[in-house]
Design goal:
Layout: E1 3-10, H1 12-16, H2 20-29, E2 33-40, H3 44-50, H4 60-67, E3 72-80, H5 82-90, H6 103-107, E4 116-118, H7 122-132
Antiparallel strand pairs: 1-3, 1-4, 2-3
This protein binds adenosine-5'-triphosphate and magnesium ion (MG).
Residues 54, 59, 62-63, 93, 111-112, 114, 117-118, 120 line the site of adenosine-5'-triphosphate (ATP).
Cofactor: Mg(2+)
Protein name: Nucleoside diphosphate kinase
Domain Nucleoside diphosphate kinase-like: 3-140
Length: 140
């Protein structure tokens, strides 16, 4: 399988509980390399753009409120089959359905406050990475 890059966010419930290092340890243990990382406070505009695909969903307002409620850590992860691999490491959106050992099973608080985001396809990964990182901020 080819080396890929995926976009990750450690969400406000993770920064609030000071568990970003614990999550990064799970990411690295899975063989993914953190090739870019920064801590930011998303604006509403950034969050609305990022989650535009969900703008008709009933939870959109709640999702934007949550993503702007505190700092997040945005990351680029690199590795073999990184997009699918990170989705596996994250676990299901709803932590009560997530497999044992996954980030969401171990750390997520609820279906909304679920600790991490990971891109779902190569096209979305490229768009999401470009929203938050310049090329020279990614060092593989
Ligand atoms: P992400 O896109 O954050 O990686 P995902 O792909 O597992 O998560 P999506 O269906 O894309 O899940 O939903 C995006 C985010 O919207 C979820 O991670 C979660 O924070 C929030 N969300 C999804 N479903 C609900 C819901 N029913 N109620 C509240 N928030 C939700
Ligand atoms: Mg998604």
């Amino acid at each position: 399988m080819a080396i890929q890059r995926t976009f990750s966010i450690l969400k406000p419930d993770a920064t609030e509980r000071n568990i970003t290092g614990a999550i990064n340890a799970l990411i690295e243990k899975a063989g993914l390399r953190i090739v870019a990382q920064k801590r930011i406070h998303m604006t509403r505009g950034q969050a609305e753009t990022f989650y535009a695909v969900h703008k008709e969903r009933p939870f959109f307002g709640e999702l934007v409120d949550f993503m702007t409620s505190g700092p997040v850590v945005v990351q680029v992860l690199e590795g073999d089959n990184a997009i699918a691999k990170y989705r596996d490491v994250m676990g299901a959106t709803d932590p009560s359905k997530a497999a044992d050992g996954t980030i969401r099973k171990l750390h997520a608080k609820s279906i909304g406050e679920n600790s991490v985001h990971g891109s779902d396809a190569p096209e979305t990964a490229a768009i999401e990475i470009a929203q938050f990182f310049a090329g020279n901020e990614i060092v593989g």
